[in-house]
Design a protein that fits this description.
The chain has 362 residues and is α/β, with parallel strands linked by helices. The chain is built from 14 helices and twelve strands. The longest helix is centred in the C-terminal third of the chain and has 33 residues.
Length: 362
Amino acid sequence: MELTTIKDFEQYALDHLGTLANSYYATPAVSGTTYNENITAYQNYKFRPRYLRDVRHVCTELDVQGHKTSLPIGFSPTAHHIFAHPLGEKASASSAEAENVIMIVSLMSDFPMEDIAKAAPNATLWQQFYILADEEVMLDLLRRAEQAGVKAIVLTVDQCSWRQQTWYDNDDIKKLLSKAKHGNFQKYIAKDSDFITQFMNLMPWSTNYASWDQITWFQSQTKLPIIVKGIMTAEDAVLAVERKVDGILVSNHGGRHMDDLQGTLDALPAIVKAVDGKVDVYVDGGIRSGQDVFKALALGAKMVFVGRPILWGLAYDGAKGVSQVMDILKSELKYTMQLTGCTNISEITDDYVIRTESISKL
């Protein structure tokens, strides 16, 4: 079976992963409005191609946080890759290494961050963090990340509350989650205790508290770049810049934790304008093609990150499947650049896209 589009990989995962794993990976918050907005937002923009240009040589490389990457496309942090493939995050990291792209490793990875780094010693890995309830645990995890050689910290800030989705109450889902290894947290929880309860008590939603001062705390504890993930408004973007963060990742958690949010692409332009070039702005959520990647770059994103498509590739053929997903996105981005008249990532601007409602007013 030859898979030629990201949709093909999604369908393969739906057909082969099983209901429980698919439910865990795919299920949105409640009604799915935010999840849907992420995807449909890209359909609201059309291309404005420029022709009669020399597009024989197209370069998709760029420098991000001091490291060269082959594509403006990275892996967004997603939990429990082991549900898709026995090698889990190790396989995903191996693909990121082979493709020379950035992988943000979830703090909820099945394998410890050290093992993931060893599996792909030349990969550019960023480590995702939450603002945990236990500062000592958080600091120890930070030191482990530094020692593992990660290149940046990605701090997720949109999970200060836990809304237990209806699918989480399913006993079969709970059995599936009981198979998760939670590799980063094993050392902090006594073996004779209720692991899940103790684990949940460490999470940010156990206290419902987070503040901008905690950004400053992270900065005081490490020299690694701090990327803030979960910003959805220009106002918060300005505050992030004032706190001297190194980057902003526009994200709504893939539509998993709250309904009726803007799609991330729709939130992007205001945030880019507010930041005014002071820090990099990235975006994830709803990206399903190289054309989508182009549109996000045109609206000001330095690069994009994809989550579920990586899991679908992993389900298909481990690291090779993930690389196939990335090859499709690269090919689609490259021909979109050629067909719009761009030969370099830096040439992609909002001159090349127009919002559908703007077309109707012409």
